[in-house]
Amino acid sequence: MLIPITSAFVDLITIHLFLMAFIANIKTSSFLVLICFLTFSLHTTTTEACHKTDKAALLDFKSKITLDPAELLKTWNKSTDCCTKWEGVACGSNGRVVNLSRSGIFSPILDDFAFMAGTISPSLGRLTFLRLLDFNNLKSLTGTIPTELGKLSHLTTLFLNSNQLKGSIPASFQNLRKLNRLFLNDNLLSGTVPTNIFRHMSSLTELDFSENQLSGGIPSSIDKLVSLKRLELHHNNFSGSIPSTIGNLKNLAYLILSNNQISGSLPSSMSKLVLLNSCYLQDNKLTGSIPALIGGSALQFLVLDNNMLTGRLPKSFGSLTNLLGLFVRNNRLKGKIPSSFSNLRNLQYLGLSRNGLSGPIPSELVKLNATLKTLDLSFNPLSLVNIPIWISKMTLLQLHLARTGLIGELPEWLSDLSSDDLSANSFLNSLDLSSNMLSGVLPAWIGKMASLSSLNLSNNGFHSAIPVEIMNLSILRILDLHLNNFTGGLRPIFGDGLSLSWYSYIDLSYNMFVGRIDNFANLGNMESLETLVLSNNRLGGSIPESLGKLRQLRTLKVAKNGFAGSIPSGVINLVSLREFDVSYNKLTGKIPSHTTPFPSSSFKGNSGLCDSPLPPCETA
């Protein structure tokens, strides 16, 4: 018999648990299950001992568990009452088990032991009064999902996500008519979803089958899920089209079907999804034109990247006044950007790159100067010639206009978009103007753009030395200047006294840089650097041994320069190094033994080099 506990005391415990969750950074969804379980348990008074059928079923489940390092089932003993003594088990007043919750812990500190290995026993199908079954994030449950779980006709919550379950989803799940939430995501499930599985699930509000290996079409019975608020099927192999009746899901707020093989056109019935908040359909094979409306005024994010959509951007999208992000990158759209987009007064992200859109960019977009933070129109035939002057009035964080027809010199007003002056409200951190026909010198005022973390001016016609003022870009992480006509030395980039720890990517290839780099003492301080490409220049000296300190370096290419001397063993044996090219230099000596199998082409063109993968060195 449980001691009576007041509802006020339950509320106090609930508040305390939320504070614990905040401090421990435990994943909220799992913690809510714990709170619901605790609240139910505290309000339940048991007048009868655990039913023998339920106890036997639970003990059989325990017998199928092969590893339990967190001792989640430690209290499950045959000699004790499963209703009052077993952790994770709650019973009703009739002694029948109603809640079973043994979930894992979302914590990087505890991940090594917060798991449970084994299979799910079919005997759990005998827990005929069960309402909640939660085995989420146990990480190592294997085998198939027992069809017997379809007998749990009172079940409202089923969490089997974040395990290693295989096989197909049981067709018997169509009998779970009271289900409210069904999470099978992050497993190894395969095969098709049974056609009629959703026919009687009119109470289902959340469905997540994402991150599995499911295939076939989306079941047509999905239109029966009239209470559904969240639908996640992303990262599978679903094919076929989106059911035309998807508009029946009038309570749907989150639709995430990305990273599948879904084809066909977007159903016009999606305009009926008036409560839709987020719609993620990227990385599929969708074709045809974009419907006049997707969702309604509640829509905040629409992501259609990496499909094969054609036609024009609908002018009617200007009515989606709560839209925060619109992404239709890498499709086959034509026509102009609608001026009606200026009505999207909450828009923060506009990504339309890699389409066939034509210019000009509507100047009305300047009305978004207070909200728009990302403008990505790269790789469209916009024929801009100049960067529109009205962009100087924006407060952008990212401006990407690669291959948009820009010509001539950089306008000095660009420096006004990026500053370390907090009062200026100008914090441009990413500028991509690559693959245009920009020319002239790289101006000294580039050093005023102190908030830049990414600068890409590659594949243009700049022809000057790098100004020393670039040293002022103290948080620059990505610098791409390849395929220009830059000259002079690299002291402004690698010179002594500079803090290079931010850099993760540097590509200076295909220019006319000269001088040595082995006399820069702080090259070894680029602790975050993953890519360094200096190929096709006129650099000399030796390959610096200090590069052997760059533990994150994955790509090092210095081909077609004038480097001499030997290859430092510490460089070629960097643990993360995957791409290495020193071909066509003046290197000599034996190639140090190395564990990563680089091809012979990485070393050719150095007549003095020998040993694997080149021919062996000659012996005296």
Notes on the protein architecture:
- It is built from five helices and 38 strands.
- Helices cover 9% and strands 19% of the residues.
- The longest helix is centred in the first third of the chain and has 18 residues, at 7-24.
- It has a 21-stranded mixed sheet. Strands 1-4-6 form a three-stranded mixed sheet.
- It is mainly β and 620 residues long.
- The model is unreliable at 1-47 (pLDDT under 50).
- The N and C termini lie far apart (92 Å).
- The chain is globular.
Radius of gyration: 31 Å
What structural category arises from helix and sheet content?
mainly beta
Determine the fraction of residues in helical runs and give it as a percent range: under 10%
Strand share of the residues? 15-25%
The biggest sheet, with number of strands, parallel, antiparallel or mixed sense and barrel status, is: 21 strands, mixed
Number of strands: 38
Which stretches are low in confidence, meaning pLDDT under 50 for 5 or more residues running?
1-47
Average pLDDT: 91
Q: End-to-end span in angstroms?
A: 92 Å
So what's the overall shape?
Answer: globular
